[in-house]
Amino acid sequence: MKDDDKQRPWYREPWPWVLIAIPAAAVIWSIFLIIVSFNYQVSMVEDDYYDEGMGINRELSRDVEAASLGLTAEVDASAGKHLDITLNSEQQRNWDKLKIELLHPTLGDRDQSVTAQRTGAGQYRARIDELSEGRWYLDIRNADNEWRLKGELELPREEPLVLKPIREARANDRPG
């Protein structure tokens, strides 16, 4: 008998190992991805998304209130270390403080929540950490959280940003 006629054991053949390697590689890659996902959690994902979604309806009432007061704001971020806000209203009310949130779209560790103090009639100033260039979401509310103005701030910016109540709030505010 020749050696070629003898059948080699299966583990000495290359094809069974190729077929075993494909699912083994998938299992190893899955384990790697699970380890990475637990070690590097993304801050943008909300684990209470249902509660966040239900809160949208409560938030819209604040937009309606801002529209009914006829509020607009001019936000000047050109100074770097502070925001200057000019708040205009049809009824020209002066609130002592404003709550301001500056939210970075992708990096949650750069978000800032500050309080703006009144410096004059309709004038407010808030100290902030220096903002990086790019887009920022801006949310301004009074201290009692009765109304809000929202917008996007693109930096660098020379002229003030004008914030108005959102259109949906104005449409909901009209009678009939």
If you had to describe this structure to a student in words, what would you say it looks like?
The structure is a single chain. This protein has 176 residues and is an alpha+beta fold. The chain has 2 domains: 27 residues; 103 residues, Immunoglobulin-like (Sandwich), CATH 2.60.40. It is 31% helix and 30% strand. The chain has 3 helices and 8 strands, in the order ααββββββββα. It has an 8-stranded antiparallel beta sheet with strand order 7-6-3-4-5-2-1-8. It is elongated. The protein starts with 13 loop residues before the first helix and ends with a helix. The C terminus is likely disordered. It comes from Halospina denitrificans. This is Nitrogen fixation protein FixH. Pfam families: FixH (PF05751).
Short key terms for the protein model shown above:
2 domains; Immunoglobulin-like; disordered C terminus; single chain; 3 helices; 176 residues; 8-stranded antiparallel beta sheet; 31% helix; alpha+beta
The figure for the number of domains is 2
Order of helices and strands: HHEEEEEEEEH
**What helical percentage do the residues reach?**
25-40%
Could you tell me the mean pLDDT? 84
| CATH architecture classification name of the largest domain | Sandwich
How far is it from the N-terminal to the C-terminal residue, by CA?
Answer: 100 Å
Count of alpha/pi helices: 3
CA-based gyration radius: 29 Å
Q: Structural class, from helix and strand content?
A: alpha+beta
Strand order of the largest sheet: 7-6-3-4-5-2-1-8
Low-confidence stretches: 172-176
Biggest sheet character: 8 strands, antiparallel
Total strands: the figure is 8
What's the level 1 CATH class of the largest domain? Mainly Beta
CATH topology of the largest domain: Immunoglobulin-like
Pfam families: FixH (PF05751)
Organism: Halospina denitrificans
Keywords: Membrane, Transmembrane, Transmembrane helix
Transmembrane segments: 15-36
